[in-house]
Amino acid sequence: MNYKNDRVMRDWIFFIAVVEARSFTVAAKKLRCSIASVSKSISRLEDMLGVILLSRNAHKVEPTSAGYMTYDFAKEIRRAYHELFSELNEKDDKIKGVIRFSAPSLLCEYAASQWIFDYMRENQHAKLQLVSRDRTELTVATPEFDDLVLKSWVTNSPDVVHQNLGGMRFNLCASPGYIRKYGEVMHPCDLNNHWIMKVEHPFLQYPLALTNDNQTYELHINNDTRLISNNVSSLLNMTLSGAGICLALPDWVASKFLKSGELERVLPEWQLPELPIYLVWRYRQNYSMLFNDFRKYIEVRWRDLLVNGIQ
């Protein structure tokens, strides 16, 4: 949902964001706007209501008693706003309207852009915005939740809905040239003798529990044998070039290169934990035809990606 053309609704959204972040700076960052814009929105609301909503000091922002009461009503206003648009969009049988889809940058690069293109080609009255997201924390006030977000982990709030899409598998991979030069890895403990390129993600923090049937091994890697990056594409390219062993490539990314022989699995009999993936959106009583159709479409495309990988 786009609030840019509705200043009153935008003020409510900004207020919700400040209350939940307890900070003008953090709220502005999440909302992708200036601190001055957030401050003006709060001032307009306070002028309109004739009360002080927020107590400001050098360390943090706290809602006043009126602010707490207003916060509860603000969430209801936001929900009613969405329901109005949903009802208006249901007046005919066309899939139309505007929706935003937020996904990790890696997925946008390899798959989600094509998904969006294919959907709009089939539904010409729909307008979609793809938001490429690096690893950032999403709060309940994050505007992306007004539409549809694909993410790992759970955002703890009764205001958002999580649809579990299942677990995403990871692989330890290296190029055939690297394996020929340095030899096969026979056991997880041998990884400390290799150059490890690790994907930075909270789910992949050490110690990592690798399993092999009934065996479990807690993996630690020495600091002097690893490179850590949140850019999976760059780690993939370095792995393809023979620079080291990547821990860990998403299976849907690695599968194409494993099939072509450009990569080989390292310790294929050992399994890394699967990362839970969710479609997440803000709860409301009514959803537009576009929202329901697009959500089901993304679920199908994601599951197909997990099975077949990138093409």
Enumerate the spans where pLDDT stays under 50 for 5 or more consecutive residues.
none
Helical content class: 40-55%
Q: Radius of gyration in whole Å, from Cα?
A: 23 Å
Strand content: 15-25%
Task: Please state how the strands of the largest beta sheet are arranged side by side.
Answer: 4-3-5-14-6
- Our count of helices gives 9
Principal-axis shape: globular
Structure class: alpha/beta
Structure description:
The protein is an alpha/beta fold and 311 residues long. It has nine helices and 14 strands. The strands form four sheets. The protein has a five-stranded mixed sheet, covered by helices on one side. The protein has a five-stranded mixed sheet with strand order 11-8-12-7-13. It has a two-stranded antiparallel sheet with strand order 1-2. α1 crosses α3 and α2 crosses α3 (35-49). The longest helix is centred in the N-terminal third of the chain and has 25 residues, at 65-89. The model has no long low-confidence stretch (mean pLDDT 88).
